[in-house]
Structure of Protein nucleotidyltransferase YdiU:
Amino acid sequence: MAFLHFDNRFIRELPGDPLTLNQPRQVTAALWSAVTPAPVPHPQLIASSAEVAALLGISLDDLQKPEWVAALSGNRLLTGMSPFATCYGGHQFGNWAGQLGDGRAISLGELIHNDQRWELQLKGAGVTPYSRRGDGKAVLRSSIREFLCSEAMFHLGVPTTRALSLVLTGEQIWRDMFYDGNPQQEPGAIVCRVAPSFIRFGHFQLPAMRGELDLLNKLIDFTIDRDFPHLAAEPAEQRRALWFSEICITTAKLMVEWTRVGFVHGVMNTDNMSVLGLTIDYGPYGWVDNFDLNWTPNTTDAEGLRYCFGRQPAIARWNLQRLAEALGTVMTDHAILAEGLAQFEQVFTQGMNTMLAAKLGWQQWQESDVALTERLFTLLEQAEVDMTLFFRQLAELDLNAPDPASLRSSFYRDDLYHQHQPEFQQWLSDYAQRVLSEERLPEDRAARMNQVNPVYVLRNYLAQQVIDAAEQGDYQPISELLDVLRQPYTEQAGKEAYAQKRPDWARHKPGCSMLSCSS
Ligand SMILES: Nc1ncnc2c1ncn2[C@@H]1O[C@H](COP(=O)(O)OP(=O)(O)OP(=O)(O)O)[C@@H](O)[C@H]1O
Ligand SMILES: [Mg+2]
């Protein structure tokens, strides 16, 4: 097995919890607690990501060896690993929730490979002082979803935490999937997540709320030093301002990217917001099938729609505001924080325009495009059109004879197709005119559009089919699906089944359109 170089800065440089008592409690004046992952009876590696293993300098052969499988399931520590759970708080559904923390995430350490730092974190490896009433575990269905979506997002080009491995623990755990008093036993599993940093907005919020300002200052300096090393050269008085601006900018870019691919996170609480602008915590997320800005996959949010597709950017901004308030307890020049927030607006608006122009095959965004795209969104929503299929088919539109019939297979309902056909005809004509006004060759347009409009996304029902197979003991479909998702922008021969709109049976099926936080 290759030598592993761990350099565990988080626990070396930041104050830790003096108690070792591993039971749910408030942890104050500390940012982490040393913990030991719970042993599991029969660890079995059922999927892994070759790309992430390569990032870490681990061969796939090594990963399958008993030492690594044991490490990825929490059964043993490899040399240099020093497990810990971190302390953070957060606003959940708009309300301050106090201490949350890594209730079922245990970091193993920070691995250095090719001068890059990668934290390895097990999700579902047992209780920590932050587990509150939970068991610290994760079930197979939610772990498959986390594993696949992390890697799918990466291949789509969306900033995200990664997933190295998916291990079945051999344990059965109780879950009440729909909170309806019908708990069932489900197979337990653990994903090993990988990211340069797992620091969240909530890590700063908690010490700020508690008035632990010394701790907050330490965390800010540490985060800048470790995770934003390019800011080291900046004059000390500007460093924090630039840092906050950067968080606002990367978060704005992330929102543009989620919109581009039709991803709905589902639980954008401040504890699920990465300071690096990565997508983090793949819980009750979902992918938009029929375009609908009001859609949320999360049943817990079905009434309030706080975290629905169209509201994500506004929520990101709201979350940044909460972060600014926390930082404002020690960064007393509040104008600087306001400037950062203003950057969010600017970068988001500009990013959306550029992204939409690219999706629609336009070279430049024009003021008049606002009305044209808004008309499109309304139509897609009213006529229930599949977002992913629509943009791929639009790339093939005959600009000299635009015809809604050429897009027909992206519609879910015949009646709505017929009802909206005249408006689509009009919109497509206006669109064609708009494209032709740029004098760009149609072939070039299609190729460019296809670089930003995926063919394959992790449709909710595709993930559910793989889960159903895995729960029957067949794990091969996980890797098969991941293989297709590795090249999401390229049509792959024989893989048509992965590029279909949601079948009727999946419209209201649990797991396919309705997801709870139970995981
Ligand atoms: N089964 C569980 N046992 C213990 N704590 C849990 C469990 N499920 C969730 N939590 C904790 O509840 C809080 C909110 O949960 P949330 O669903 O956002 O996170 P998560 O899915 O567990 O993990 P993460 O954000 O690390 O991906 C977090 O503090 C989390 O650690
Ligand atoms: Mg979370």
Notes: The chain has four domains: 5-201, 203-358, 362-439, 460-506. The pocket of magnesium ion (ligand 2) is lined by residues 271-272, 281 (CB under 6 Å).
